[in-house]
Design goal:
The complex is a heterodimer of chains A (about 525) and B (about 80). Chain A is an alpha+beta fold and about 525 residues long. Chain A contains 13 helices and 25 strands. In chain A, α11 packs parallel to α12. In chain B, α1 crosses α2.
Amino acid sequence: MRHGTDAHQEGIDHVTAGLSADKKALYLTPGPENSGTVDVLFDDHRVWSVKAPEPDERGRVRLAWPRALTPYLRGEARITVRDSADQHTLATGHVRIGRSSAPIEIKDAQGRFLAMNKWQRLGPSFEGNDTGVQQRLLASGKRLVDDLQDLGYPVYIVGGTLLGAMRSGSMLPHDDDMDLAWMCDETDPLAISLASMRMERELVARGYTAIRLGFAHLQITFFTERGETDHYVDVFTGFYHAGLYCQPFALRGDVPKDELVPTSTVTIDGVEFPAPARPASWLEFAYGPNWPVPDPSFVFVTERGTKRRFENWFGVFNRGRVFWEKRYEMLHERVDAADGSADVDRMLHLLPAGARVLDLGSGDGRLSERIAAAGHPVIAADYSYEALRLARNASGAGAVDYRYLNLNDRHALLGLGFELVDAGGAWWVSLQQVLQSVPKQGRANVFLFLRLILRDEAFAFATVDTNLSPRYERGKPDTWHLPVSWLERESRRFGLEVEVVGTGRRATANGERETATVILRRGAGEGARGPEDEEE
Amino acid sequence: MESFLGRLLTRFAPRTAKVFTTLVHASEEEDGLIPRVLAYENEVRELRREIDELRKDSLRIAELYDLVFRRLEIEEHSATPRG
């Protein structure tokens, strides 16, 4: 660890604090005079904002690095700490964390600077992206708003978009998307879900890409010409239930309806957008009475009962998805690898000639194309658009039918089931390194789907990691595991039989993993047994 | 020894000592209090689970309702003669 105050070198004469850092925390001596919010900048790019805690007995303030940031903290950087309110520099200095002298770069694969957001995640923000994304987002958002209004949805900007509009008439520099809500007149969760499904279909029919994150939350995604995710707009469903305004997935509280609709108009960088009838009401409801004062360290905390209510009413489909998007986003093109090929070859030996195969969780498509190359018609599905981009770009024309499908979304999975059953005949299913990396509810959806579509001699062929990764992390689905006994117990409830056809080991970035290869067949019973969330 | 520890606790951690004293008396006087609290806790947990299940049922019905009616619409359109 190296530290110092180099204010004089930089000609900054008002810096008063010393600064040092290690892999666990950043230290200021003495700490800021008032315990407000401070911005932490790496090489002049804001990365993190945090409320400064009280100094210890030595007058030192310790700012523990957020977990999401720590993987990047190896090497050298010039760190500056400034007061968020007035941008006054409190401390600045060059630090080295660990032994490396390489520059610390907190960027994504596309070279965009990353910053901690209000969900305690690291993501790109407007202030670190000079590619014109803010203008593209405004244009896309405006077009989407016009279309939604044309379709009859009373839509209004909310969240950081409304906050930026009201504070400065522009987007917040540390924001990364646009937030919209619409007022749904339904009060029953069932009817609200149906309304959101209808909206999704109508937007898709107008050419939009809609990612469903729950039955009250759509994410409209816009891509670059190369097919990479460029920006997105969240569309939340607002409604009243038991007298309270609800806006899944985070907000539920007391806002009079006439303060939301009919909508008013605000301007963002010269572009007009619909806003709640009284914008300050929505902002106070979401951010509290201090909403006019900038606080980049603001963290959204949703009350537990609200979270349970919304998750059970509308589902949660995003678990693990962002992890895979980020993983594949780092690659500009598919990397050749042999991982999983032996398992697929073993499956190919068991398939009848020309058997139709559905490859669920197809990732970059390497294995789907291996199946297709053996003479099988293949539908390959994944819930990462970045993975689908790699697969489509590398794939020969028409070799594989690539599709977006989220296994956490039972409605979408059953929709595909209808289509396959409708097509007639048997479908075989490949699940390579998939089942252990989806939540239990997602696996239940897959087992229900298999129960419905497996016909005659058809089976599902799956390989899973069965042992706990030495580097297990809850937020990293590639470190999850699924012992065969769990697989048997969970799938049995859906009338499926499991046959273990092989075990092995594989070396991964997360340590050596034990694997099991299994065949799942439809059993002789009538179907699903027992409640779905048994043994949660 | 017990009395010595009690005096020590009262001197150095008076609030903790008071809590301990209250708890000791409560368990002597209300012999069934703790089992009752545990039973209530279990009941609350069970009720919460039942509410969750009912809410999930609403989602399940919405999914199936949409799939079935979409299917019927598609069939109706495909059955309509083109003119």
